[in-house]
Amino acid sequence: MSDQLSLLPFDLMLAIYLIAIAAEAMSGALAAGRRDMDIFGVAVIAFVTALGGGTLRDVILGNYPIGWTQHPVYVYLVIAAGLLTTLVAPYLHHLRRAFLLLDALGLVAFSLIGCQVALLLGYPTVVVIMSGMLTGISGGILRDLLCNQVPVVFQRELYASVSLVVCALFLMFGAIGLPVDANSALCFAGGLSLRLLAIRHGWQLPTFSYHRRWD
Amino acid sequence: MSDQLSLLPFDLMLAIYLIAIAAEAMSGALAAGRRDMDIFGVAVIAFVTALGGGTLRDVILGNYPIGWTQHPVYVYLVIAAGLLTTLVAPYLHHLRRAFLLLDALGLVAFSLIGCQVALLLGYPTVVVIMSGMLTGISGGILRDLLCNQVPVVFQRELYASVSLVVCALFLMFGAIGLPVDANSALCFAGGLSLRLLAIRHGWQLPTFSYHRRWD
Amino acid sequence: MSDQLSLLPFDLMLAIYLIAIAAEAMSGALAAGRRDMDIFGVAVIAFVTALGGGTLRDVILGNYPIGWTQHPVYVYLVIAAGLLTTLVAPYLHHLRRAFLLLDALGLVAFSLIGCQVALLLGYPTVVVIMSGMLTGISGGILRDLLCNQVPVVFQRELYASVSLVVCALFLMFGAIGLPVDANSALCFAGGLSLRLLAIRHGWQLPTFSYHRRWD
After folding, report:
1. pLDDT for A49-59, tens place per residue?
2. Interchain contact B126–C (C-beta under 8 A)
3. B140 contacts in C (CB within 8 Å)?
4. pTM of the model
5. Residue ranges of domains in chain A
6. Which residue of B has its CA nearest to A204?
7. Interface pTM, i.e. ipTM
8. Which of A183, B18, C97, C154 suits a disulfide with A173, CB 3.0-4.6 Å?
């Protein structure tokens, strides 16, 4: 991570990243609770939700060693956040708005980090965008796989699309020469606004339903 | 990919490969439609079905960089094929036979390419065969995982077995000195015939049912 | 594998490893039978259950080439064990205790091997423990994913926790200077006892249930 944090002032970006993985870990813990898992399962799902997207990105891009293996503190943080969630869960629905905000923050932060990693490795544009989206949304997809449900990121309000928009904006602003700080700040603001507006107004992509049986 | 296309005349093999990934992308899009995903989910499932098998093979064999990251056109093609499917879906069942033919073509082409990749990397025979099968069938397995269903490749007419037969023939013919062009053409013809006959006559492997509960 | 077998006298450790992967392959075959898969599916699930955990570990740690690609005999063994299971399945419930013992042996052996691999690669402590657990439990998780069920390792008697305890003991005993032979033997005895006691007495971790809907 450390060398990929240059896209915003270091301390701010690191803080956002830590908040984001903690928020993702909490969403993983809640999903595990819906499947009545034991606390070990909670810790594993929290870990996979928070750090699985970055892991998948690093494996696909061949970016070894994988981030969290060099930063044990991330591992402790997400496991602690997951276990803490089991204690505070009865009160969490009061915090729904805060939680959605943190999750949106994470989505945007993960997406920007994923773009940056692929850019540093010299991959072509479409791979940079896919790396951003992979980092942004695949933790949630892995969480849903392990909890045996169809990934919600493809069925609800704009989520994966926010990641796409953030990545595309980041590359476009970069191409027209915007300094990286201003670029990141703009993408953050744009992505966050889009996600929050989508939640508020229930914006969704058109869905594709196909239930004809061929055989 | 480009360096793995030498097993048939280049243009023909590339054409077959492009048709194959487009056909796989379409099968992915239809599966996403059965889960009422949004168009973003359709694109993702199309991508994973078409290019996920090769990705998994490359990750397991340590064959970096992964194919599609160097050929953005493959990415555009499979996403376009997936999205196009949502438009033409109402008419697709008229094309069932053409679709099954393309899918069978893809199965055989993917299997031969997977063998070839592992051969070039110097892996032992059993790994070459597994690489061929991984490339041939795991895109469909990933598709079914993401759509939350038991992989159909293990429950219907001969499918995975066709991949195995193609890989085994390719290695055997190679071992007895058949030139690679003739070898590939023979394997294509054999694999395609076997798959189409299996569909026509409903050939299946014996299944294993075990429903005794121990506890 | 061969270079990771130094933690116990070589022949003994290898024998335990081979028994363990055969036992895991059998558990995979039975799970495939519960989904009425064909014998090809049985072979694939057996393979993934037995060797998938080590594969995932090697991919995440960047430990190429992956173990089984260099030892074809492991591949033949697990596929044979899987297929054999379909023949002896009607009699297997008489062997339930032997089977659970072999599975527990495998869990402990896999965990110790996973720790050792990460230690040799120089990863930090928390990664060593996670590598042990990944090797110990993720084959079973992949099996459950492919069979479309919530991973049982998070819902039954102590299982993943046994792996954690074994890994932690191994590192602790190593840190206080216990020779590696004695260390491994102790961890084996401890882990095996814990698992068998947990099965006998139904010891479970506390579970986390969360069924409140937010929306």
Report:
1. 999 999 999 99
2. yes
3. none
4. 0.89
5. 2-201
6. B38
7. 0.86
8. A183
